[in-house]
Amino acid sequence: MNPLELTPDDFRRLAHRVSTLAEQWLAELDSRAIAPAITGRDTEALFAEGLPEEGLKDGALDALGPVMAGARAGNARFLGYVLGSGEPVGALGDYLASVLNQNVTAWRSSPTMVSLERAVVRGLAAAVGCPGFTGSLTGGGSSANLMGLTMAREAKAPANEEGSPSGVVYASTEVHMSIPKALALLGLGRRNLRLIPTDAEWRMRPEALERAITEDVAAGRRPLAIVATAGTVNTGAVDPLKEVAAIARRHGLWMHVDGAFGALAAMAVPERFEGLALADSLSMDAHKWLYQPVDCGVLLYRDATAARRAFSFSGDYVRTMSADAVEGFAFFDESLELSRRARALKPWLSVRYHGLRAFREAIRKDLENASRLAELVRAEPELELLAPVPLSAVCFRYVAGLAEPERDAFNTRLMARLNARGRVYLSNATLSGRFALRACFVNHRTTAEDVQTVVAEVLATAKELQGA
Amino acid sequence: MNPLELTPDDFRRLAHRVSTLAEQWLAELDSRAIAPAITGRDTEALFAEGLPEEGLKDGALDALGPVMAGARAGNARFLGYVLGSGEPVGALGDYLASVLNQNVTAWRSSPTMVSLERAVVRGLAAAVGCPGFTGSLTGGGSSANLMGLTMAREAKAPANEEGSPSGVVYASTEVHMSIPKALALLGLGRRNLRLIPTDAEWRMRPEALERAITEDVAAGRRPLAIVATAGTVNTGAVDPLKEVAAIARRHGLWMHVDGAFGALAAMAVPERFEGLALADSLSMDAHKWLYQPVDCGVLLYRDATAARRAFSFSGDYVRTMSADAVEGFAFFDESLELSRRARALKPWLSVRYHGLRAFREAIRKDLENASRLAELVRAEPELELLAPVPLSAVCFRYVAGLAEPERDAFNTRLMARLNARGRVYLSNATLSGRFALRACFVNHRTTAEDVQTVVAEVLATAKELQGA
Q1: Do B99 and A118 touch (CB under 8 A)?
Q2: Per DSSP, what are the bridge partners of residue B282?
Q3: Interhelix angle for B356-379 vs B448-465, to 10°?
Q4: Is A403 on the interface with B (CB under 8 A)?
Q5: Greatest CA separation found in chain A?
Q6: Are B236 and B262 in contact (CB under 8 A)?
Q7: A378-395, pLDDT tens digit by residue?
Q8: Residue A319: pLDDT above 90?
């Protein structure tokens, strides 16, 4: 008997118990407080005893109760950050991925899973209007953006072999933190990220981009890449992709689109993403607007050769031994990862179950819910809408009876209290130095009634804080 | 009704069906052919129709049969690469992680999961003899090694802000491909990785390391870091960690240990890893020698400040708002990731169920099985052992009736045919230019009988190839 023996009966019993917990979690999601009432001291105490020397057998599962009680319940009224709602069929795909324990390094290691992932990538690329793009699934947008910029650097100013890379990357002032982080990691330096000003709707201004590039060239610096954002994290702004692409082409620069938040919405409203297919590389997160459980990022690119130039450097022990294009395929030649979980099984199962049409509808509903919230805010004198709503992020604040200098502090307290009440969860953004409450709809469970609850809860929380 | 509606009954029915598939997979694992008899054309054809516009509902699960039939069955006789055997309680932890859909960015986002992951990291650090180290779980060894070297670069020659990094990194000729890949990515350049020769047992030679550093310093170059390997991928060699650490200290260099394959064996045989705790950073893969399903890498480090210096660069919308050390904690300040799956749930549940003692025993059994295979090879005149077996990788080849120049080609064919027979799965290594069959034991299911089957299958395959 092996030391980690688990009989078929053991597995069946444990799987049944975990499935029951999963069913309960989903059934009770709507009635749970989103943010658990728990302190850091409480959560550390739960695990203070460390990992046990002797196994607890079935008793090990007893501790799952407190773990779940202190977890965040992402129900219909969780509207913080940009986090998808965890479609449960996708979760079942993940379950099977872990049991099968396929390592999706190369076709040789997991034949069907490699073809399945390639098919998911092709299918999603086609769905967002980028047919012919290939790529791979990643841990998330940060990895996908890092990989896109690695490709850009190697395409425009190769440094893999000699090191000492240099060059300038352009993005709007609304750029996601993962982009400066990638520049730092790649040895390009955060100071070589030019932050281009935006227009009144938080979109990169093409003429300012053009000017910045021209100035850098004149100063003897080397422009490498432009990062356009398709759905800024603050307000959901989509940079003018066609104009940016034209500038990139004119100057011979790589165009990466950070579509982690927004790009999958091109499935539903392609007209808002005109020019998306002009990108050289494109990141988008299926764990955001395709509602999949984390982690499920996607990196797409036009030219697999550029990915192999950036990432192919295989040790002998993983070198594939086939001349066949499929059987010789290795994701590690096009990725920074070697071992890779079968991430594609979840979107594959989830999309096959519901169909692409249902996902398009869910995205449209999110867009409607965001518009609905914006209208309710506009109609409510105690609230102020702080930005346009081009996709599904809504920035607003409470203003009634507050002078401008008091508003930031009050809304900061309001958000904390609102989230602690547990019925609604919002996050925040800073827009022109002002603190904004921010609701982001990438949640297939949210209804029109939930949107009304957001407004009601914000108003009730304000009353509570004002002692009314 | 939302467009992705799934009722509690739907979920229960689908979960039951997926659990049944999981049970079948595990029950039939031992009788399945490890490498499926399938071609690239077959696997591509399975997914040729793309993602469906209309949902197939329960029919979507019908396609799981062919997916599973064409997957690799990692049973007791799968001994390729370095891939753990997928402990099923861990898989159930993954299942729950996906249903709960926690995003382990920061305590604020998932209070219990953040504390749980910190506890798992602390517990594993203590278990391998590195108490007090902190860190995080990663997608795998490639990411963990990349992060360790990012910390090294920022500690010794900061480039996050200004770019243009330079410096030299040292590792043995047996270094894993993820290290040169990390140097390329970080802008240090692969040519600035010095490959230090090894001794007869494939361990880095400290005097050669010392000499290389001295030469680089004399030539005006800047040494940054030494990567010691605790378990080389070819033969499982453990570099002399204490000696390497002394050299690192003397020259003021960062010491990273790539323990992706081996370091977790320090739980069972700490005497083979003397000096491990002298590392500044250490990677190890729980999806290797802790038998967890992929992905489950671990990065440990002595000083969290160094991690924050390398990775902290937070955008406003994720900035935490607590002064409390636990409640203000954010993994993204110490990692290249932002969105993060609750990876820790699997080792936590798996270790609680079985207990650390059972894992120590399983590791000892792997070591015994490797020794057993080495003995059988030594005792078998038709086979030749090609390297010592310090951990659990065994390199050997078929030699009977073959002149030296014929051996590489014959063993290459032998491996392909052996794996195609489906009963045993080995991978390969190149040692001093010679092709070796390689069996690696990180598999809790392998028995002494399975080890005998490896030899029997190799001999039978050789007969088959020789037409005997």
Answers
A1: no
A2: B257, B300
A3: 40
A4: no
A5: 75
A6: yes
A7: 999 999 999 999 999 999
A8: no
> What are the tens digits of pLDDT across the range A400-456?
999 999 999 999 999 999 999 999 999 999 999 999 999 999 999 999 999 999 999
Strand-pairing partners, residue B438, are B395, B427
pLDDT of residue A172: 98
* A430 chain-B contacts, CB cut-off 8 A: 316-317
Cross-strand bridge partners of residue B230 = B238
Residues near A191 by Cβ (< 8 Å), separated by ≥ 6? B161, B162, B163
Mean pLDDT of B190-218: 98
Q: pLDDT averaged over chain B?
A: 96
Spatial distance between the Cα atoms of A170 and A362, rounded to a whole number of angstroms: 33
DSSP secondary-structure letter at B429? E
Comparing alpha-carbon positions, the chain B residue that sits nearest to A183 is: B160
Residue A386 contacts B, CB cutoff 8 Å: no
Hey, which residues 408-437 in chain A have their CB within 8 Å of chain B?
Answer: 412, 416, 427-430
* pLDDT tens digit sequence for A193-207: 999 999 999 999 999
Residues 6+ apart with CB under 8 A from A165: A153, A157, A159, A186, A187, A188, B163, B164, B187
The pTM of this model reads: 0.97
Query: What is the per-residue pLDDT across A48-59, written as a single tens digit (0 to 9) for each?
Result: 999 999 999 999
* 8 Å CB contact between A262 and A230: yes
What are the tokens at B450?
């399975």
| The pLDDT value given to residue A317 | 46
Buried-state track B72-82, b at ≥16 Cβ within 10 A, e below 16 = bbbbbbbbbbb
The DSSP call for residue B375 is H
